[in-house]
Amino acid sequence: MKDKDDNIIYVGKAISLKNRVRQYFRKNNKTARIEKMVSLIDHFEYIVTDNEAEALILECNLIKKNRPKFNVLLKDDKSYPYIKIDLNEDYPSVFITRKVKNDGAKYFGPYANPGSAKEMVDFIKKRFKIRQCRNFKSNKRVCLNYHIGRCLGPCVNKVSKEEYRKQIDQIIMLLDGKIDNVKKEMQRLMEKASEEQRYEEAASLRDKMIAIENISQRQKVSNFSNNDIDVIGIARNEFNVCVEVFFVRGSKMIGREHFFLKDVNEVQNSEILSSFIKQYYIGNENLPRKNYDRGRNRRRGNSF
């Protein structure tokens, strides 16, 4: 829908365009927002797609690009930090990125709080002694991190690819929320090291187990699902509308984000959530593996 100056004021989709447009011009049951929008309509443009999926993607892309006045809009297109492990490398590193690519690497997140992502990466580098350098290359001398016990020294072949990969596998389980699996494996290795009188290694494994337990407790909020899910809720009063997203991975909440939406006080919750979900998840490659329906309405909003 466009105004007399050819500005896009609303973008929508419909299987039957005639029936959809007719709804806006009925005399009854129109909110002040719809009446204002209709009063500004000067002409229409439409694009025919081959199927509903294409229509959905096109609608979201047009809304994000043109940000029409009468569509429900997210406040911004904020990008979130992810933790990346490039498994294509012989000695993978662990670092923070805001770009998710289809490159064979493992991505964990999103972390709505960048501080939480940094804390986790710092913890991993300290406790698992993986390489700190972003650009890996073979050297003749070890770096300072090796001397202070914070790197296994893969650049000078101080550790085999197999042993290094075991560290990476434990890190992946940790980031996947499989804390118990990591602790069991470390318990096994600790007992083996103790039996073989490698007491320093056993003590190091014990300290690592304690540290993992501590950091997992700080992240743990609720064990209401064993799946990776996003929990979305909406709350509103006469002045504001807020949509909140909680990121739950491996039964633990790893972060959250909220969005205050403008000029939607007269819009129903169902329309707000529908628009929000489409804009938020189209193009987002890090989707939870299973959704979760709480099946109940709260006094000031709906959660699902």
Explain what the structure shows.
With 304 residues, the protein is α+β, with helices and mostly antiparallel strands. Helix content is 38%, strand content 14%. It is built from 9 helices and 8 strands. It has helices at residues 17-24, 32-40, 52-66, 114-128, 144-147, 161-175, 179-195, 199-219, 269-281; strands at residues 82-85, 94-97, 106-108, 229-236, 241-249, 252-261, 296-298, 301-303. A hairpin with an 8-residue loop joins strand 1 (82-85) and strand 2. Helix 7 runs antiparallel to helix 8 (199-219). The two termini are 31 Å apart.
Order of helices and strands: HHHEEEHHHHHEEEHEE
How many helix segments? 9
Categorize the overall geometry.
elongated
Structural class: alpha+beta
Question: What key phrases describe this protein's structure?
Answer:
single chain; 304 residues; alpha+beta; 8 strands
Could you write a compact summary of the structure shown?
It contains 9 helices and 8 strands. With 304 residues, the chain is α+β, with helices and mostly antiparallel strands.
Secondary structure topology:
Elements: H1 17-24, H2 32-40, H3 52-66, E1 82-85, E2 94-97, E3 106-108, H4 114-128, H5 144-147, H6 161-175, H7 179-195, H8 199-219, E4 229-236, E5 241-249, E6 252-261, H9 269-281, E7 296-298, E8 301-303
Antiparallel strand pairs: 1-2, 1-3, 4-5, 5-6, 7-8
Helix pairs in contact: 7-8
